[in-house]
Amino acid sequence: MNKTDSAKHQGQRRQLVKLLEEKGIQNKEVLTAVGTVPRHWFMDTGLEAYSYVDKAYPIAADQTISQPYTVAFQTQLLELQKGDKVLEIGTGSGYQTAVLLALEGLKVYTVERQQQLFKKTALLFKKLGLQPKKVIFGDGYQGLPDQAPFDAIIVTAGATEVPKALLEQLTIGGRLVIPVGEKDQIMTRYIRTGEKSFDRKTFGNFRFVPLLKYKN
Ligand code: SAH
């Protein structure tokens, strides 16, 4: 695999970052991270030309690579600090994971339930030298109990309800950013304020592929 990052792509990425700023993304580290990650490395073959268009695109297994604005918006809501342990539910193309890794100093865990995508993306991370702490094939609905607690959890698929396990796996002060709803989702952030208490805030409408629940 030949992953290059041409001057043309870099220029398109600068334009994308400008656009995200115009759309209201303010966090400088997040903007820098989006400006650093070659999104075209994570797009499906044949769609590379659209890499720096601010839209979601199809990837394998009927899933999507998230829209850059959504990636930046969710990442900003996580309010990450150096050293934070972060769990991503829905590895997908690996683009959001790469943006988290570009923030540097984070311990990133990522879970994907589609085996085909899991295999493809885990291999891509290896080839690119990207090193999440763990890339896991499994059901993110359960979180990752053996690695909990997390300072931040990001769900990159639409949930009809908030999985309890995810709230339980937050540190005190930890943030869960999750789109909640059926057809459209409301971006929701929970901050754990105590053993049993959470602050909940909503941040407008988005549209995601569904967060799937394992059927027993
Ligand atoms: N972060 C990804 C977004 C991919 S779309 C990116 O930037 O490309 C959402 C992903 O969530 C899909 O790959 C889907 O297979 C995965 N997913 C859905 N339900 C899941 C679950 N219960 N556990 C883990 N992953 C899940």
Proportion in helices: 25-40%
Number of strands: 9
Question: Helix/strand/pairing class, anyone?
Answer: alpha/beta
How does the overall form come out from the CA principal axes? globular
**Average pLDDT level:** 96
> Percent of residues in beta strands?
15-25%
Order of helices and strands: HHEEHEHEHEEHEEE
Give a summary of the structure in a few sentences.
41% of the residues are buried. The chain has 216 residues and is of the alpha/beta class. It has a seven-stranded mixed β-sheet with strand order 5-4-3-6-7-8-9. Strands 1-2 form a two-stranded antiparallel sheet.
Structural commentary:
The protein has 216 residues and is of the alpha/beta class. It is 29% helix and 25% strand. It has 6 helices and 9 strands. The protein has helices spanning 7-22, 28-36, 68-77, 95-102, 115-128, 164-168; strands at residues 57-58, 64-65, 85-89, 107-112, 134-137, 150-155, 170-180, 185-192, 198-206. The strands form 2 sheets. It has a 7-stranded mixed beta sheet with strand order 5-4-3-6-7-8-9. A hairpin with a 5-residue loop joins β8 (185-192) and β9. The longest helix has 16 residues, at 7-22. It binds S-adenosyl-L-homocysteine (SAH). The site of S-adenosyl-L-homocysteine has 23 residues, from β2, α4 and β4.
